[in-house]
Amino acid sequence: MTGKDKLLDVKDLRVSFRTSNGTVKAVRGVSFALERGETLAIVGESGSGKSVTARAVMGLLAGNGVIEGGEIIYDGMDLAKLGERKFNCLRGSRLAMIFQDPLNSLNPIIRAGRQITETMLANSKAKRREARRSFRSGLKSVAPYARGVPGGADIVRSFVKTAALSAALHREHSMRLERAAEAAFELREALESVLNGETAKALKRLRKTLLKARLPYLERADGAASPLSGPLDALESQVRLFPENGGGDGLLESIERAAEALEDEAKRHAPYYFARAHMRLFKGGEGEAGALMSEFIALADKALSERRHVPPEGKEAFSGAALAELLLDAAKCRADRVSRRAAAGRALRLMKEVGIPEPRKRFRQYPFELSGGMRQRIVIAIALSSNPEILICDEPTTAIDVTIQAQILELIRSMKAKYGLSVVFITHNLGVVAGIADRVAVMYAGKIVECGLAEEIFTSPAHPYTWALLASMPDLEAADKLESIPGAPPNMITPPEGDAFAERNKYALKIDFMMQPPEFQISDTHWAATWLLHPKAPKVEPPGIVLERIKRIKLHGGESR
Amino acid sequence: MTQGPGEPILKVEHLKQYFKTGRAELKAVDGISFEVRRGEVFGIVGESGCGKTTAARSIIGLYDITGGDIWFKGRRIATGIPDMKKRIKRAQKAGSRAEAALLSETLRKNIEEARTSKRSGIMTGMQMVFQDPVASLNPRMTVREIIAEGLIISGMRGKEEISLAVASALEQVGLLAEHAGRYPHEFSGGQRQRIGIARAIALKPELIIADEPISALDVSVQAQVINLLNELRRQMGLTLIFISHDLSVVKYFSDRIAVMYGGKIVELAEARELFSRPAHPYTRALLSSIPLPDPYYEKRKQRLTYNPVSGRGCGGEPPQLREIFPGHYVSCGRAEYERLAAAGAEK
Fold first, then answer.
1. Which domains does chain B have, with CATH numbers?
2. Residue B294 with chain A: CB contacts under 8 Å
């Protein structure tokens, strides 16, 4: 496979379920890699193991499910062996999932808004708990140095002091971020209501917002003029003038300016930018924080050198720089407390972003009051609420009709671009796959039978199962009888010996019933596990309906229909 | 009463179905009219909440309709009582006694007519297949009981006769007669939908209303059920009303298609015609949102969106269903009608 950045690497994953009838081998050796920024679609009938694979990655297997073997490598960790506590810090924050039926994945008796904030609050709680733990263990590993080392007590003292400073700094930044983002959101809302002709009502709220927004920004520690003061002052004077100036373009423009300025301000405090500033402050060695930090690193290094029994791998783990890193991280998480109010503000902004009109009203509504599309948007907002890196969508549009499906797919696509998500998309609708996937993996009976770029799967499918899937789906030009796949997927308690699809495959060879086919590479990015690709196999053509469609795709490819 | 092919088997006129919700009336179906011809597959498409399922349930008599009339095989089977009563009241208020009397006389006649035709057992000629094969089969009844229920209600008494009818219905849908003793939960989704279809065809209907029969099924099974319906239609000379939101399936399966939006039919035409020359902006938006198994097309396509308020040159008058070319009806205002008809004539 290409040597790009592998974000998630699943190797030979095997999942079984223990039932009273025997062990159901639901996933039997699945390997795939998810590259950063790509969308991988997993396609197959129900019962092919695609959802089980996704759930194994999320650590959400049912109680009787066991990961029998294989690895799920993410960020250097093997998720297959990760404990529940560690998983809680990943799930929902770095891995997020969207389920098939939004009515079932939302709690019917909790208002939509609270279900979004719930994830944020729970996540911040789990992260903080984890951070507290690592902070304590950091403190513990520092403590031995303090004993019997000249100036040892200073190390501990400076450790604690640095942590406190770092936490305070972090807290202030996140507060500023929240305030700015919230004010910007309110201004945008006001803008909307002015455009709708409710100027007086909007201005009443605007005054309140301004009061809130001004307080934390206008005075800066270094006395320099904040970039916000200009636009905010302009807006304020406009608001004060109100009935006389008639709330015309001048007002609209000043609101727009102020909102933009506030959004910039929010961006400046965004975690990524902040983390850089934070590092600069502590590592650059300027000011009180820098001095404390360098003092701490020096003390810790000195203590390490004076200690007699240090295991070789401990040298690096206990060096001053490593400890400092750990410490700052822990402090940051510890300070990263999401208050209820901040979470609500963030939820409102997210709802707006995923295309929910009147977020304030929807925030207070119950799932049953929302339409299918709105519910799925809420689920997407929940998934996005803590900035995940990987989004797993398990048939997110199957329960929704076409127009809304198209909207939801567009939303997922745009959110993917905006947040730089990598997506695993599970579906049985090949039309949806064609629209969203970069790469496609076709699954059958717990194995991936064919994998390739979307274009390759649709224009040169190689596995008879892929053919069968393509042939069973009508498109707008299909006129022949549809070819349904005869029979049902095999019983996974006793999976067949050879190719699992052989039973239902009219192209099956004798060897298909005896031996599992290996993966035959067709191109660098495309492989299929079928004996038909063996050089000695008879030449077989895909069914007519598939050939015709391929011809049509090639004919129309690149031009509009 | 015998009818040749191509003649209307079902006629719906100004069908209205309103529901009372707390504050206001919900106009689920708001005055739709169409004919279904004998032997054809009539498709109804639209997004969820557009009233297509309600229309089906009103036609088969699961709701008492609010307004309009329904004829089946040339006989009136339902009439909208509340709407008529409202009209009578309005006439009385306006002071025109004669009109009120006339209206109430018509109403009485219509009700009587619908009652007699219902008593004659005409309704067994119309059956329904429901969307969710899990929810529509009683889990506590065996397949035999499920299929026989309708037969017994329609007056069949002999045990032998009933089991023969059940067995033949099961065979027709590709299940075995032995399956009759089992319970629904012992079957897969596709098989359950077959049971639902067997229940519908056991009474030898002439018209089957299939309400999203495949949207709860898996891909490969969907094709099986469509092929089965096609087969049955040929064998039994069935007429079908096929309701779905999956346009590619409707296109594949139907002869004529009605597109519904907001309780109204916005476009009605032959399948091929509708897909090659969609005239209503909503139909176009709907067509552009179908996902097609073609990655090149999908990655380039621009989805159209439909905004019911703007972009309609109705000039204030309520749009009507007008025939822009033979057999192709579009809901539009007069000005737009002229434009569309002219465009159609050019082609």
1. 8-253 (3.40.50.300), 279-346 (no CATH)
2. 434, 458, 475, 549, 552-553, 556
Under an 8 A CB cutoff, do B286 and A482 touch? no
Report whether B136 contacts B216 (CB < 8 A). no
Is A309 within 8 Å of chain B by CB? no
pLDDT digits (tens, 9 = 90+) for A42-84: 998 888 888 899 999 998 888 888 999 899 999 888 998 888 8
Name the DSSP class of A215: H
Beta strands (DSSP E) in A155-222 are: none
Alpha helical stretches, state H, chain B: 52-59, 81-94, 97-119, 143-153, 159-172, 189-201, 219-236, 247-253, 271-276, 281-288, 295-300, 334-346
CB A363 within 8 A of CB A171: no
Q: Does A355 touch chain B (CB under 8 A)?
A: no
CA atoms within 13 A on the CB side of A127: 22
- Going by C-beta distance under 8 Å and a sequence separation of 6 or more, which residues neighbour residue B108? none
**If you write DSSP's letter for every residue of A334-384 in order, what string do you get?**
HH-PPPHHHHHHHHHHHHHHTT-SSHHHHHTS-GGGS-HHHHHHHHHHHHH
d(CA A343, CA A336): 12
Q: Check if the beta carbon of residue B316 is closer than 8 Å to that of residue B296.
A: no
> What is the model's pLDDT at position A263?
76
Judged by phi (left if over 0) then psi (alpha if -120 to 50, else beta), residue B99 lies in alpha
Summarize pLDDT for A261-287 with one digit per residue, the tens: 777 777 766 655 555 666 666 665 556
pLDDT at B238 exceeding the cut of 60 = yes
- Exposed/middle/buried for A182, CB within 10 Å: 0-12, 13-18, 19+? buried
Yes or no, beta carbons of B219 and A428 under 8 Å apart: yes
ipTM of the complex: 0.76
Q: What phi and psi, each to the nearest 5 degrees, are found at residue A397?
A: -120, 5
Contacts of A488 in chain B (CB under 8 A): 188
Q: Decide if A475 and B220 are in contact by the 8 Å CB cutoff.
A: no
Select the residue of A435, A469, A557 nearest B291 (Cβ to Cβ): A435
